[in-house]
Amino acid sequence: MKKLLLAFIFFSLAQSVGAQAWKTVRHEVSFGVGASNFLGDLGGAKGIGTHGIKDLKFQATRPTVSAGYKYMLNPYLSVKGNVIWSLLSGDDAVTKNLIRNNRNLSFRSNIGEASALLEYFPYADRVNPRYKLKGVRGNKAFSLTPFFYAGVGVTFFNPKAYYDGSWVALQPLGTEGQGLAGRPDKYKRYTIAVPMGAGLKYRIDKQLALSFELSLRYTATDYIDDVSTSYYLTDEIAANYGDVAAALSDRSLEPGVNGVIEYADGRNNYLQRGDPKYNDAYMFGIFSIHYRFMKGQTFIPKF
Fold it and tell me: Rounded to 10 degrees, what is the CA torsion of 224, 229, 231, 237?
């Protein structure tokens, strides 16, 4: 009887200590590398361009790096601050949509994103790895722990087009007549972004872990690629912003198909250049290494 009582007490103490172990490793940093893909007006699949997965083109994949700091609220929920640098691109040359292919627009943009995230681990973010020991039976633990997250952030971007041997920033050029009669002001080069994603995390030991995640960012702008609404009169753009701006506003392969139709009575028909119905979005696939600080630890880890 005494042995059973002692075993019960020992087991209860062990469970209590294990349940509180996460409080000793609440702080975590992460560093990641991966790839990005743009979902917007340029490039894409057949049909109307959207910010959906169907418009993903592997030719537009570009590099990404990330860094983050996480604080565990409990084993299931954490808050995380995250920063990302990436490159986005889009090119009408890769689409099989004849109208967009003839439009012949392209861009690239460095982007910087800072976000605040809430992470959810449905099976808990484990403190220690679980090993399979030969000859020992018991409940099998997940070797990989799934997680999900969502949040809000801000993204900085600066679309450029390759023209006459160099990359030219597009926002100052007002390629859709921004700032001219009947058009809105030039767009801002930053936007609100809504990140959401899912991944798998593999714990190496109490402090080190590896993960892979796939995520999507919806934004509050349609101008990451500098394309949104309709064409504008090229002579007006040239007069106000210069010949380079006029040339980059309409790069159609077949002249006369796109642009502005001017009627004899003075009316103009501004043909569609982009689709303002859908804001731009982008995706990430990122591999990360994670390091947890033990309680009271102050030094920076050496990887």
Answer: -60
